[in-house]
Amino acid sequence: MSDRKIPHPLVAIIPVVILIGLLAIVITLFGSDSLSGGSQIALLLGVATCVLISMTVYHCKWQVFERQMTKTIGDVSVTLLILLTVGMLAGSWMISGVVPTLIYYGVQVLSPRFFLVSACLICALVSLLSGSSWTTVATIGVALLGIGQALGVSQAWTAGAIISGAYFGDKMSPLSDTTILASSSVRVDIFEHIRYMVLTTTPSILITLVIFVVAGLGHGNDGGALHVDQYTGGLAATFNISAWTLLVPLLTGILIARKVPSLMVLFISSILAGITAIILQPHILCQIADDTSLSTPAAIFKGLAITYYGSTAVQTGFDALNDLVSTGGMAGMLNTIWLILCAMCFGSVMVASGMIESITGVIIKWVRTRLSLVTSTVGTGIFLNLTTGDQFISIVLTADMFRDVYDKEGYEARLLSRTTEDAATVTSVLIPWNTCGMTQATVLGVPTLTYLPYCFFNLLSPLMSILVAAIGWKIKRHRPGESQQAPS
Questions:
Q1: Rounded CA gap, 466 and 200, in Å?
Q2: In the chain, where the domains are located
Q3: Could you tell me the end-to-end alpha-carbon distance of the chain, in angstroms, rounded to an integer?
Q4: Per-residue pLDDT tens for 140-163?
Q5: Rounded CA gap, 210 and 208, in Å?
Q6: Host H or E run for residue 93
Q7: How far apart are CA 95 and CA 308, in angstroms?
Q8: Taking the model in full, what pTM does it have?
Q9: Which residue, among 285, 292, 287, 324, has the nearest Cα to 308 in the 3D structure?
Q10: Tens of pLDDT along 74-105?
């Protein structure tokens, strides 16, 4: 690979331009159904363009692409399993009565006026303690979306509040894999990394909370009481609403606190919810089985199996509530997994061909000042989220590309780790074909481009990183060759 020819930047950008153009066409033609196949085709055509140029013009061998795709897809294999398990969790938490119970009590406690800021703070706390935005959104986030719907709050606003809080907590948690990855990639102590992020993250989350408070003042006294009564009445008539169901999230929280791996937490929580469904909601499971010829135990087992792997539709007598309590199970995650695989293929061939290196090389050449260095890092993180389709790849590549540049210019390594997180971690959920964007859109049932304008924390973080760099607040510069380890 050492004698590999790096494509000219104008050539390297061709697959990206084609991909963006195709995705724009797909979104125009298919709208919210664009993730059901159209986007995948666009990504594969982007792959074909990159491979065609590389093999015909630069004589790159197919085996190079194959090895990179095998490695990249292998690296996200656990992520794919987590997605399937999230499908199990979403179905079982709904049918067992966990989410309906949270919604039932939540709509009676939370005020429409302060719901958005409350949702953001709740998700921030859960994500901070769990270290996982995905787990937060798939559990308490789904419940909060239902509560918001019952209170008459826009789904787009609610999803924005959920995601803003979840990604704040994920970013600031020492248990978060992205936080660990960003700090370890540039050899910065994780707690020093978190402390340094406070300078950019605190203003971003405070501004976000203020926006949600102001926006929430417009959600009140608009006939919401009748709306809430319809939801609580429908839930109580359909599900066995019981505080016992809350043992499932409680035990899940204990597992998280004991630092059990995410995949195990999600699977165990799904099994606990399944047991709860058998005990408290057997009538719902029999309804899902839809087979009166089966004995009750067989019908319950069939209903539980369908809850885990397939789509469910429970009749509550209220159309809006029917949509809320319907689930997709593991099968509902397959389009997302399909899209992730296609996005990983595109990212792989762009890396293997050297096109990513060529494009980012141009960006690095623009670095002249502290502001341009941080701005270039932010731009690269976002660009890699767009092109590689995965935040983990974006974090690692951004850190690798700029590590020597920061060292050469005499800036602390913690500035690089913070900027990488401000850009790569939080913007991944804003991109429809990125693993994060696809996952959260699927779990919440709200398209990425619909919730994007309301994810204020995610939008503000990279801008705040640039602003702090422009001011120079707490940014130290050393002479080249001096230790880059930040003081404790």
A1: 9
A2: 78-332
A3: 40
A4: 888 888 888 888 888 999 999 999
A5: 5
A6: helix 77-95
A7: 10
A8: 0.69
A9: 285
A10: 877 877 887 788 788 888 988 998 888 887 88
